[in-house]
Amino acid sequence: MPSNNAAHKFAVGEHVEFLPGPWDHNIPRGRYVITVALPGDDFDRTYRARSAADGTERVFREPQLRTGEPR
Predict the structure, then answer these.
(1) What is the pTM of this model?
(2) Domain ranges of the chain
(3) Which residue, of 34, 49, 68, 70, is most buried by count of CB atoms within 10 Å of its CB?
């Protein structure tokens, strides 16, 4: 069974951009702020992030995010 012991790529408070995949059409694209770095599973690290647009918090896997600039 694979193990994911690598550090998180994003830090709490960091601004990121959500990159929706083909199954993510119901989640608004845009800027988010990392609020919690979660343990994740054996394949991806996960994060809770707050939308800069509406304040809604969502959970994302690391590959769904890229570094974003604050606005």
Answers:
(1) 0.82
(2) 15-67
(3) 49
